[in-house]
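anyone seen this seq b4? input:
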Amino acid sequence: MIGITSIGAYVPTWRLDKGAIARQFRGEKAVANFDEDAITMAVAAGMSALDDAIRKEIGALYFACASSPYREKTAATLIGYAIDLPREIRAVDIAHSTRGGTAAILAAMDSVKAGSAKKAMVIASDMRRAKPNSNHEPNFGDGAASLVIGDTDVAVSILDSYSVSNEMMDMWKGESEDYVRSWETRFYISMGYMNTVGEAIRGLMKKTGLKPQDIAKAVIYSPDGRSVAGLAQSVGLNPKTQLQDDLFMQMGNTGTPYCLQLLAAAMENVKPGDNILLASYGNGADAILLQATDNIAKLRNKDLMRRLLESKKQVPDYVTYLRWRGHLDSAPQHVRPTPIVSAADLWRVQEGVTPFHGQKCTECGHIEWPPQRVCTKCQALDKSEPVRLSDKRARLFTHSKDMITDQFDIPMIYSVINFEGGGRMITTITDKDVKEIHNGMDLEMTYRRKFCTEGHTMYMWKAMPIRLK
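predicted toks r here
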């Protein structure tokens, strides 16, 4: 039996009221902060599905994304390093399609089935840019999701699948373009989405011999928050009783991770023996039949999506959103030289930067960051072992507010934090309400963008108030 053994998800803290875009729109969409992108959200989702035991067994990582910051560079290697997976993994990017999440699941299943990986991890993430005032702007949300696929302790088994490839120019983004384009809405909904996903679902039912009434929960990609109900009816499903809430009014369509996020949300109410239909769309469709096992009660993060959706802050206004997305140029209040990153220097110190390893002295037990050869407490030389700090909580020791340096993070909170168990770091605090910042508050770590220069995005670990208590 091969299937899902662990699940994770990420929805950004920030929400934009769609009415801020235009008064006729209702609901809200999830918006990545100015220092987030598809890679940082992938790291957050991946970390939520892992513990030390799972991490050691991962043999492959499949990263699905239609909005990677890099057009040439494997993002999966960076993500795998940041979440501290073993070096001996197969790291693969699956790009350019919102169907990539389910394609990654099927690839992960095949690798476990073939024995090339004991467990395989799937992470899907997207932060697609929509042109202001376009039909896509109120629809596109940001987010990420992750799954671990294995053949032991399976909570949701993968029974069968059916795929359809369909070549048509419905939605696309050119090589030199920043925004997603699409043909006329009725065309890509009726001739693309409705026909193709319907064909995949009917094909899966015919292949497995299942009838619509045998499906306990249908998790189906929703392009606009409306068409999915009609699609469900067209294949014999009851939208009111069988269709998973598409969460369109709470977070929008998040692209590649959308189906996986909906699947994570469905886990909260799934019972052993329930058949689950998972269907995606993007130049074709994948329909996957899943079934909950007796281990479903032990599945971690069953309520994670609900808690993430409930934990939110509002983007102050539409102009702030446009600036975060790079749609509006704004001069910094204080002009600084453009930072330059030395690839060689970063390579030398990357263990302390990307997987965020500190060191623990084997002589006196002192923990410190960044790693260095000499213990600052007992002066022992080259007698230390790495310790991961990315999943450690911390406490704010002291802080200051900078009102002029950064053009987005105003005020920027410079902080000195102390980690549980030992270790100290100087960093900034993100995803914050300035009124709630106080010395002694509890914090957690989050992987974020620092800056981008010459196409190279520099990432670092920042602190943030604990989001899910």
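The longest strand covers residues 442-453. Residues 3-324 form a domain with the Peroxisomal Thiolase; Chain A, domain 1 fold (CATH 3.40.47.10). kinda curious what u guys think
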